[in-house]
Specification:
Layout: E1 2-6, H1 22-34, E2 39-43, E3 59-62, H2 74-89, E4 92-96, H3 98-106, E5 110-113, E6 119-127, E7 140-147, E8 149-153, E9 158-163, E10 171-174, E11 178-181, H4 189-198, H5 200-203, H6 205-214, H7 221-242
Parallel strand pairs: 1-2, 1-3, 3-4, 4-11
Antiparallel strand pairs: 5-8, 6-7, 6-9, 9-10, 10-11
Helix pairs in contact: 1-7, 2-3
Length: 243
C-alpha cells in the first residue's frame, strides 16, 4: 500500500524552520501507529511538488499547515481542485487539522476563525457514533490540538462522528472514502510544546498556561492511527473493486 502525504506545512523557505520537522515527525507516527509496512510518499505541495494523478498513490493524507484554507496562495487553490477530484472519483482521503478544514471548504462547507479563540493542548471530545472499520470504540477521546480556524458548516453528505462544545465539528466522514479529523494525532508533546512557545504572544497567556498544563494528559493518538489504517484498508479496497 502506498499513501501520499500532501505536506502543506512547509511555507517557510528557511531549511532551519520548525516547519521542516513536520515530515519526519509524521513519518515516525505513520510507521508507529498507522502501518510499518505501507509506503509513505511525501509531496511538498507548497513548493510545487505535486502528484501527477490521484492514482499515483493508493490513498492521500492532507496534514496540518500554518496557513488558513481561505488564504489566497495558489497552492491552496490547487489543493482544493485535487480534493474535488478525489471526491468525484471516490479516492481515499484523510484530512488532519488544516486538511480537515480544507476538505470541508473544497466540498461546500464553511471554515472561519472561531470567536472562542485558540484550541490548543490536549483536548477532549465526544464520539457520536462508530464505524465498522473502527478497531476500538470509545465514548470520549483526547488528542493534541492547535487551531484557531474551525469547520463551521459541514459539506453536503458529511456524517459527523465526534463533537465537543468548543469545536462542534471534530471528526466527520463523507461516504466511505473521506475521513476528516480536527485534532493532531501525529503531534508529539515535544512538538506541541515548541509550537506553544513560539505562539505564546498570539495565543494569550491563559490559553498558553492551560494548554501547557494539559500536556501531561494522555492522548488517543495510537487509537486514531489504528482507525486511519482500518479506514484506508476498507476505502482502498472499495475503490479498486469499483474500477
Amino acid at each position: 500500500m502506498k499513501i501520499g502525504l500532501l505536506n502543506a506545512y512547509i511555507c517557510d523557505p528557511d531549511p532551519n524552520s520548525y516547519q521542516y520537522q513536520y515530515e519526519p515527525m509524521f513519518r515516525h507516527y505513520f510507521s508507529e501507529h498507522i502501518s510499518a509496512t505501507w509506503i509513505l510518499n511525501e509531496y511538498r505541495i507548497t513548493q510545487g511538488n505535486w502528484p501527477t494523478t490521484i492514482d499515483e498513490c493508493d490513498g492521500w493524507i492532507i496534514g496540518g499547515s500554518p496557513k488558513s484554507v481561505y488564504d489566497k496562495d495558489s497552492w491552496i487553490a490547487e489543493l482544493i481542485t485535487f480534493v474535488k477530484n478525489c471526491h468525484h472519483h471516490k479516492k481515499s482521503l484523510v484530512g488532519i487539522c488544516f486538511g480537515h478544514q480544507l476538505i470541508a471548504q473544497a466540498l461546500g462547507g464553511n471554515v472561519r476563525k472561531s470567536e472562542k479563540g485558540w484550541g490548543v493542548g490536549v483536548r477532549d471530545f465526544n464520539m457520536l457514533t462508530s464505524k465498522p472499520w473502527m478497531t476500538e470504540t470509545k465514548a470520549h477521546c483526547s488528542l493534541l490540538f492547535s487551531h484557531q480556524d474551525q469547520v463551521k458548516e459541514l459539506p453536503e453528505g458529511a456524517e459527523l462522528l465526534a463533537t465537543d462544545p468548543f469545536c462542534p465539528n471534530q471528526i466527520y466522514t463523507i461516504g466511505d472514502h473521506i475521513l476528516s479529523i480536527q485534532g493532531h494525532p501525529e503531534f508529539t508533546t515535544t512538538y506541541m510544546r515548541d509550537r506553544l512557545e513560539s505562539r505564546k504572544a498570539i495565543i494569550g497567556d491563559h490559553s498558553y498556561q492551560t494548554a501547557c498544563t494539559s500536556l501531561s494528559k494522555p492522548a488517543d493518538s495510537a487509537l486514531l492511527g489504528s482507525w486511519i489504517h482500518a479506514f484506508f484498508t476498507n476505502a482502498i479496497s472499495q475503490y479498486y473493486s469499483a474500477i
